[in-house]
């Protein structure tokens, strides 16, 4: 009976020694150095775990959060500890030999709003562009304003379509004749009409330019 007990005790000791040897043999030199410096085996901590706690408690330094997570490996335990105590213990000096000190990110300055580009001013529409008469400006068949007046009233057409077309053509002729008359005056007396400060004036005006 005593021999059986001795065998069981010897077997238990062998198993314990085997597990101890294999467990210590798995540590790399860096891991063993961390264990010796911190006094405990650090848990695996990801940046996401630190960010999760820091986003909930931005007043807690990130190094304090990482140190707590290295001990527990649990975001839940770290948050519960903050809720209970209001703070987390600062890491010892040996911690900073293994993990460089984390600089708190400065607040991002608010970017100035980009200036809104002013919309391009729409060119003012004149009668020539309104009635699409640009292609007829140099048409020699257009009568003068005097000839249009002497021609009397337009002929009364027999259908509404023809009457509308006749009225439209008469209006176009009057616009083109007026444009030609103004151009003739400006050509003969270029100093008569001047444009300045968005006003028409007769004679010379300061800071004025000739009508182009």
TrEMBL record:
InterPro entries: CUE. PROSITE patterns: CUE. Residues 143-162 are annotated as: Disordered. Residues 1-25 form the signal peptide. Pfam families: CUE. GO terms for molecular function: ubiquitin binding. Residues 45-87 form the CUE domain. It comes from the Eukaryota. This is CUE domain-containing protein. The lineage of its organism: Eukaryota, Fungi, Dikarya, Basidiomycota, Agaricomycotina.
